[in-house]
TrEMBL record:
InterPro entries linked: FecR, FecR_C, Ferrdict_sens_TM
Domain Protein FecR C-terminal positions: 270-333
Residue span(s) of domain FecR protein: 138-228
Name of the molecule in the record: FecR domain-containing protein
Length: 344
């Protein structure tokens, strides 16, 4: 008879770690545990389950830690001791024990640890809360200011969408972002604020930060306070004036970097370039103005620009860039094109 793989760390702790809800001490414990190759392989399987469950909507108000404890205690009790609700027809044969093995418990942690309610609804169908009424704010060509039910203020950048409940749940304040937004979160120590962005969960109590989701990458930039960024296999804590980028390809969080304030230019209106490569300047302008800006030759990417702009429209910024670098500016349909020979 096959034995269950050795896994001497608590499943619920792994769920907290992947959700970005583990304390610094708990996260260190997991990282030390992962130095063993066998543990890393088990964790990889766990993470794949987590990623699958991450495609489900955020939980709608369950105290996930307490719910997990209740579910786990019932799973551990002998079958004869588990009460059967009157409206559930008992099985004529006991279910296969393998579901309650290692990966059944992992699935339980994943589903209850931050994303879904499926297992809790099966075990305790009579106590499931009703789904929260949801709102969706969408932008196209302009930014938009939002006020959430808890008093948090959001600036939604162009071509973005934020989904949030009309009233937050009792245990946490959960929203889902596609695109880019800046969050000024009202402090509430008892109700963490969580942003679901791609495959990451950004968790805070009260702070200000920006999140940008583009394709399979997520960038988090913190202006004040502390933010915990949880990816499927890694968690980092950002301090004020720090940023990090998650890449789904390779499932990695790039190293923490100092905050590039140009990342928040759509909010502040200020752009500052200090001997920056033109390729990075153009990308910052694209992100800020939502415009199609191109370089006529690859060699132009190496040109460098030093300039500052304060609440300037794009049709005033681009001529300055062109003149400073002795380039020409032309239109190609809706696109702007900087034309020149390139730089050494």
């Amino acid at each position: 008879m096959a034995t269950e793989p050795q896994f001497p760390i608590d499943d619920a702790l792994l769920g907290k770690y992947l959700a970005g809800e583990a304390s610094d001490t708990e996260a260190d414990q997991v990282r030390r545990w992962l130095t063993d190759p066998t543990n890393q392989r088990e964790f990889d399987r766990f993470a794949r389950l987590w990623q699958a469950a991450a495609r489900r909507p955020l939980d709608d108000g369950i105290d996930t830690d307490a719910a997990w404890q209740r579910v786990w205690s019932q799973m551990q009790r002998p079958a004869a001791d588990v009460p059967t609700p009157g409206f559930v027809k008992p099985l004529t044969q006991p279910p296969a024990r393998t579901w309650l093995g290692r990966y059944g418990r992992v699935a339980a942690v994943v589903l209850l640890g931050g994303f879904g309610l499926l297992l809790w609804r099966v075990v305790q169908p009579g106590t499931s809360p009703q789904p929260l009424a949801m709102l969706s704010a969408t932008t196209t060509t302009a930014t938009r200011q939002l006020s959430l039910p808890d008093g948090s203020r959001i600036t939604l950048n162009r071509n973005s969408q934020l989904t949030y409940p009309t009233t937050f749940a009792d245990s946490s304040r959960d929203v889902t972002l596609t695109g880019e937004a800046f969050f000024d979160v009202a402090h509430d120590a008892k109700h963490p604020f969580r942003v679901r962005a791609g495959q990451t969960i950004v968790r805070v109590l009260g702070t200000s930060f920006g999140v940008r989701v583009v394709g399979d990458s997520v960038r988090v930039a913190v202006r004040s306070g502390r933010v915990r960024v949880g990816a499927p296999r890694e968690v980092v804590v950002l301090e004020a004036n720090q940023q990090v980028t998650y890449l789904a390809k390779g499932d990695t969080l790039r190293r923490v970097r100092p905050l590039d304030k140009n990342n928040l230019a759509y909010l502040t209106g200020r752009l500052t370039f200090a001997n920056e490569p033109l390729a990075e300047v153009v990308q910052a302008l694209r992100d800020t103005y939502g415009a199609d800006i191109r370089l006529s030759t690859v060699g132009l990417r190496r040109c460098r620009l030093s300039a500052e702009f304060d609440h300037e429209p794009l049709d005033a910024v681009l001529p300055v860039v062109a003149e400073t670098l002795s380039l020409r500016l032309r239109r190609d349909g809706t696109a702007w094109v900087l034309v020149g020979e390139g730089c050494e």
